[in-house]
């Protein structure tokens, strides 16, 4: 009877060795499981949103930014218009001053030869009183022509300013 039991015991030992080997293999495979779990864990770096949510967010952002940008653009346009008007004003002042300097330079130098020319052409010597009267009239004429020229330049400048002020509202309607 010992022989059938010996076969049973041998078979049981083989099964236990096989079971022990399987446990060792499983232990080695599961031993690294916490690290594998951490490595294989998915991390969401970016949130995925729907296209409609994205469009809604974009339109909300655009509605917030657009008025500010338009306001800044209007401020820049107004400032540029102001600078342009100032530039035109300075040009007009420069023209006015050039006119003054040109008038003073030619008027003062031209008055003397014309009086001596008048004396030569008439052949008579003017009296001191007549010469003084002539100089006064000449100075008055120069002052009046200077005043007329000043008024003309001021009128041109105001006309430019009026055109600019009329053009600014029209540009707002065009936009």
**Can you write the helix and strand succession as a string?**
HHHH
CA(first)-CA(last) distance: 113 Å
User: How many DSSP H or I helices?
Assistant: 4
* Poorly predicted runs: 105-115
Instruction: Kindly estimate the percentage of residues that lie in beta strands according to DSSP.
Output: under 5%
Radius of gyration: 52 Å
If you average the pLDDT, what whole number results? 79
Largest sheet: none
Number of strands: 0
Structural class category: mainly alpha
> What helical percentage do the residues reach?
over 70%
Shape: rod-shaped
Description:
The protein is mostly helical and 175 residues long. Helices cover 90% and strands 0% of the residues. It contains four helices and no strands. The protein has helices at residues 2-31, 33-40, 51-122, 128-174. Helix 3 runs antiparallel to helix 4 (128-174). Mean pLDDT is 79; it is low at 105-115. It is found in: Chromosome, Centromere, Kinetochore; Cytoplasm, Cytoskeleton, Spindle; Nucleus.
